[in-house]
Amino acid sequence: MRLSARPLLLRSLLSLPLSLSLLAAAAQADSLSVEDAHVRAVPPGSPTTAAFMTLTNPGETDLALVGGASPLAGHLELHNHVMVDGVMQMRRVEAIPLPAGETVRLAPGGWHLMMFELAATPAEGERVELTLTLDSGESLTLEAPVQRVQPMEMKGGEKGAHSGH
Ligand SMILES: [Cu+2]
């Protein structure tokens, strides 16, 4: 249908600035906003690093972060920290809940994106592309700067099994 070609073209042009704007540390999809995304700077040779950010679900439907990917990492997992017998342990989780209308912080000592099989050492000042996948099927790609991150606070100087992220 010749008549349908023009509206389609217009729509793809209009969507272009939106997808470009997603490539920033702060990103916004219809159902999720991401702020303060950053990747932990690690010493050369470190096998892993972690990504942190603040996620807000402005909608009226509960969502969940169910996966992620990055060109930097061969493998990426969603993790949480839990206290087991007074020791902080890191656990893989299937999903990070993003309740409707709430803000969830991924931060040292709590939820984080764990990045394995690093293609290169993320050095301070570099930017890392991250793609987040929601249970709604939507995905969001952003660029997160590599920064020094303070280790999580440990009571009494105790070290967990996975300290440092
Ligand atoms: Cu972890």
Automatic annotation (TrEMBL):
Keywords: Signal. Pfam families: PCuAC (PF04314). InterPro entries: LpqE-like (IPR007410), Lxx211020-like (IPR058248), PCuAC_sf (IPR036182). This is Copper chaperone PCu(A)C. Residues 1-29 form the signal peptide. SUPFAM superfamilies: DR1885-like metal-binding protein (SSF110087). The lineage of its organism: Bacteria, Pseudomonadati, Pseudomonadota, Gammaproteobacteria, Oceanospirillales. It comes from Halomonas saccharevitans.
